[in-house]
Design brief:
Layout: H1 8-14, E1 24-25, E2 32-33, H2 36-39, H3 80-83, H4 86-91, E3 100-101, E4 111-117, E5 120-131, H5 138-145, E6 151-158, E7 161-167, E8 172-179, E9 182-189, H6 198-212
Antiparallel strand pairs: 1-2, 3-4, 4-5, 5-9, 6-7, 7-8, 8-9
């Protein structure tokens, strides 16, 4: 049987129900037809596609997705791929050269990056942005919508901001903080037959969030 922790990103996405895959957007929780521009996207050349964040900082990779920034993830201006510093990446034992986009296709809710550990290239930390399905309900509403299939741990607080914590199984912990009408999600995944305890992974995820939270607008 395949390892349910095949990637940290896959685990985090499994509990984040507002994600969209393939050709549909799910901003309202219901599949919606893709705009005509999204259908035509594959024909565009990468050099004609946006490669910078809102502040003009260039992504650390070249995206081929015209709708990497979309109505599914525009609730916050925060861009982990440009605003997580190399110093932070190094501090957590990650290899800056392994940075890659979390999005696997165009028009996804997930907008962010993941980095692999220097001493364990199967394991990673990911941080990404995705819009809240019901912004008026906040973090509590997100937790309520995603009670199935995961274990919600006691909430935390970082720099005075509420933080959700959850785990879908051994080797995984994900923490959430609100930014505008979006969530900034930090996920730690450790592979192997004997991964660290969940609380240890949650501490690491919270510490990574703590190291970056000053850059995340409220």
């Amino acid at each position: 049987m395949p390892d349910p922790r095949a990637t940290g990103l896959a685990i985090a996405l499994a509990s984040f129900t507002v994600f969209s895959f393939g050709g549909c957007g799910t901003e309202t929780g219901q599949a919606q037809p893709v705009a005509e521009s999204s259908v035509a996207a594959p024909s565009l050349k990468p050099e004609g596609i946006r490669q910078t964040d809102d502040a003009g900082n260039r992504l650390p990779f070249e995206t081929e997705f015209p709708n990497r920034w979309s109505i599914n993830n525009d609730g916050s201006t925060y861009e982990p791929c440009t605003q997580v510093s190399v110093e932070v990446v190094n501090r957590f034992g990650l290899d800056p050269d392994t940075v890659e986009d979390v999005a696997a296709s165009d028009f996804q809710t997930a907008r962010g990056c993941q980095w692999k550990y220097i001493n364990d290239r199967r394991s990673s930390i990911a941080q990404f942005v995705g819009n809240l399905q019901r912004p008026e309900d906040g973090l509590a509403g997100h937790k309520e919508l995603n009670r199935a299939g995961t274990s919600w741990l006691p909430d935390a607080e970082i720099n005075g901001r509420p933080v959700l914590r959850e785990s879908m199984g051994p080797g995984d912990c994900t923490v959430y903080v609100r930014s505008g009408d979006a969530l900034v999600i930090t996920s730690v995944t450790r592979m192997g037959s004997n991964p660290p305890a969940t609380e240890q992974l949650c501490t690491e995820a919270a510490d990574f969030l703590r190291a970056t939270v000053a850059q995340i607008p409220q």
